[in-house]
Structures are given as C-alpha cells and as structure tokens.
Amino acid sequence: MDAVHATAEETLDPVDWHETATTAHRVVDDAVAYLRDMRMRPVWRDMPAGVRETFTEPLPREPQPMAEVLRTVSENVMPYPMGNVHPRFWAWYMGSSNMTGALADFLAAIQGSNLGGGNHAAVLMERQVIEWCRQMVGLPAGASGTLTSGGSMANLLALTVARNVKAGIDIREEGVAGLPRPLRFYGSDQIHSCHRKAVEALGLGNRALRRIASDAEFRIDVSALKAAILEDRAAGLLPACIIANAGAVNTGAVDDLEALAKLAAEEDLWLHVDGCIGALLAIAPRGRQLVKGLEHADSLALDPHKWLHAPFDVGCCLVREAAAHRGAFAATPEYLEPASRGLATGHWLYELGLQTSRGFRALKVWMSLKEHGVEKFGRLIDQNIDQAGHLARQADAHPLLRLMAPVVINIVCFRYDPGGMDEQALKALNIEIMLRLQENGTAVLSDTTLRGSHCLRAAICNHRTRYEDIDLLVAEILRLGSQLEPQSRRAAG
Ligand SMILES: *Cc1c(COP(=O)(O)O)cnc(C)c1O
C-alpha cells in the first residue's frame, strides 16, 4: 500500500451498523411515546436558564458518542416544543403534524434525493402530489404546480407568474424599470402579510398592492374593488392581479370567489387565490360549499402543512396555465442540460420555482393521503369547523364573553368582557389571560385586532382537538378572567 492510502478513508457512516439500528429503534420508541402522551404534557413551557445556556456552547471539535448527543436532544430540545402538535394549540395558523408524515421525513432523508429534478421516483411522486392537489381544489387538468417551503413562498411564486404575464413586456429581461405603466395588485385589508413581502421582493413596492376595504363579514367589497380598478386605470396605472382570500388569516373570511372571478375576467386581471387556510375546504363534505369558485383561479396557494397536517414544511403553488408557470422561472444553464437517456432525463422541477436543490417534501403528503384517504382529511376539516362553532356558541351565549367576528370556518375571535372597561383595559386583561394560558401550559391562543378592537383568536386546525379541550379552554378563560379582572380595573382606574 502506498503511503497516501496507508490509513482507511473516513466516512460519516457508523462503524457498527448493528449498534446504529439499536439506537435508531430507541429513537423511534421514544418518538412514538412522545406523540402518544402528548395530551398529558403542557402545551408549552418556557426553557430554564440552564437549558437556554446549552445553545451557546461553541462549535464542537471533538467527537461525542451518539448516545450522549441523543440524550442532550431529549433533555434540552424535545421537552420545549412550540406546541403545535398538542391538542390545545390554536395560535396563529398551523397544522398539528402526524406520525406517518414524520416517518416519511425520515425516509426522505434516508433516500436523500434532490428534487431539483431528474429521472427518479421522488420526482414522479412530487408531480403526482401536485396532481392530487390540483384534483382536490378542482383546477383543470394540465395545470402546473410545485411544492414549496410553505404558503408564503407559494404566494410569492404565483404573484411572480401574475406579474410576468400581465406586465406587457419581457419583464424577466427588462425588469420593472422597463414597465411602461406601474402595475397594481389588489387584495382586501385582511390579506396575509406575505403578500406585502412578495410585492416588495418583486420590485413593485408595497404601494403597488392596493388594499380594498372589507365588509362587515371581513370579505373584500367587490364593488369598491371594481371602482378602484377603474380609478387606477384612468390614472394611467396597469391593474394586473386580484388576490382573493379563501380563508383570511384574522377571521377565516372567504371572499366571494365567483364574483371576483367574474370581475377578473371582465377587467382582464389575473385571479390569484390565497387558499393557505381555506383551499382545502374543497375536500370537506360540508365545507366545500364555502369555496365555490375556487376552480376559476389563475393561480392558487395552498398549505399541506396546515389542514393536511404534514410536518413542516410544505406549501403548494398551482398555476392554471402550465406554460406561464414555467415561463416565469425556466432558465437552463449549460451544466443542467437535459440528456436523452439516464438520470438527467425527466422533469426538472427547479424550473418551476426559485430553488435549485429541493427537498423531498412530497413523501410526507403522499404517505398520509395513501394511509387515510382524502375523505378522512375532508371530515377532519368539517370536524374543526364544528369545534369552532362550539366555541363560538359559548362565546356568544356567555355574559362574560363576547364574539368579535362571524365564524365561518375554524377561526374564532372573541374576548373576555365583564363590561364597564375601556378598550385599553380590555386589551390588557385579555393579553394577560392569553399569557397565563400559555404559561400554565393549558392552551395556546394568539390575539389580533379587528377594526380597532383587540381579541383573542383561536384557529382550530388540529386533528387532536376534542370538544372537551374547547370546554376546558372556556372554563379556564372564565376562571382567569374573574381572577384577573379586579387588578385590571385597578390598573386601568
Ligand atoms: C399561513 C398563511 C400564509 C403563509 O403561509 P406559510 O406556510 O406560513 O408560509 C399565507 N396566507 C395565509 C392566508 C395563511 O394563513
């Protein structure tokens, strides 16, 4: 042997595969128990200082036995989750994950495939999952799509396609500087903040996104929208795209998709539907009537990591015209020329978005859909809507609670209101209730402000929630409210 090869090459593979299997089995056993016993643990708890400090340890130079590494994770990481897999987590808007999806993420990492594209099974599976998403929301055959990191990225991709199609110039070549007239996008005052970031990133600027007032049900006022489009056109701007809410983030409101589709057709605007919350209502036996008109979208964002409960992260962007989708992102460099045979044939998925290397997100969606079937996911959506109705009825009926917005899907905005307190004192009291619920580990809600009124917000996108969890929430809010109310009044007075 020559001197260069005198020592064995190094690898990250284990020395003892048998020992690795034993360790891996233990990880799986612990993981199963973790999910099984989730209900018994606090939804959330803060980390003690000692745990926080471990995250400032320096870069490790020396190796450590795997058993020790895993022990650190089980002591310092696993007990301090965000909490969204817990049955009483209803903050912001998230799914609650599932065991099958977790196994899928493990297998995806074991195979390790890069979904930039090529001729391999994972690529076909992503295309199949996109096709299933298309079928779920009812877009026509031939529509295109891509899995993304989430809804924000799905919306950004869709708005990029809309901008490029409606620009009237080769905007990929000329950029926004070449626009003869400034583009205008429209959405209600209830649209998600990711749209602002999208128009900023697209070089259009926040002002290019005109917010139209929403009505009493928090839906876009279609006649005000029409007036705004005509006004902008008369002023020399180029109205380009309507962003419709299918499930607005504050209240779950669903815009009148049929009316928006009609207006978009009349005025020659792109119709993008932000369906991160509500597009999947289309698979719910009772919920689907709420999103009639979804199928008219030119593009649509949906979020399998919300109502399909895929582990983070996976979003989906669908575009009706496949050529428009590819036309916005395709750029084949010389080192990625497709071949006629072998691995480099097939579909280059990186031409449908901004990422080149991409993870195997399809597997966790595919495996869960295969295991449960789409109809069960549809029933779970209806179940969450029913649970939200249960909470809303209590908030409406109880003299110390007040419902703050109509409940159309699974989002309930309400507050504790004993009467005789001003807005500022009510806000302080309700924030304190929300924080106590978190700190006690009972439940996690978030809050929002609707037309100047602060409220607690429960978004029930959770396949583990039971009616008894809702009842516990109401009881705890009433208990905390009555306990905190006297001091709130003193502070306000
Ligand atoms: C969650 C959400 C988004 C953003 O999606 P992410 O997956 O969090 O990136 C956009 N719009 C709406 C309406 C949402 O609810």
Helix-strand blueprint:
Blueprint: H1 17-36, H2 49-54, H3 66-76, H4 99-111, H5 121-137, E1 144-148, H6 151-166, H7 171-174, E2 183-188, H8 194-201, E3 209-212, H9 222-234, E4 238-245, H10 257-267, E5 270-274, E6 299-302, E7 315-319, H11 322-329, H12 362-372, H13 374-397, E8 401-403, E9 411-416, H14 423-439, E10 446-450, E11 453-459, H15 467-492
Parallel strand pairs: 2-3, 2-4, 4-5, 5-6
Antiparallel strand pairs: 1-7, 6-7, 8-9, 9-11, 10-11
Helix pairs in contact: 4-12, 5-12, 6-8, 6-11, 13-15, 14-15
Please, how many domains? 2
Identify the quaternary structure here.
single chain
User: Numbering strands along the chain, what is their spatial order in the largest sheet?
Assistant: 1-7-6-5-4-2-3
Strand content: 5-15%
Strand elements, count: 11
- Radius of gyration, CA atoms, in whole angstroms: 25 Å
Shape: globular
CATH homology-level superfamily of the largest domain: Type I PLP-dependent aspartate aminotransferase-like (Major domain)
In helices, the fraction of residues equals 40-55%
CATH class category label of the largest domain: Alpha Beta
**CATH fold category name of the largest domain:** Aspartate Aminotransferase, domain 2
What is the residue-mean pLDDT, rounded to a whole number?
96
Q: Segments where pLDDT lies below 50 for 5+ residues? A: none
Q: Give the N-to-C terminal Cα separation.
A: 87 Å
* CATH architecture descriptor of the largest domain: 3-Layer(aba) Sandwich
- Count of helices? 15
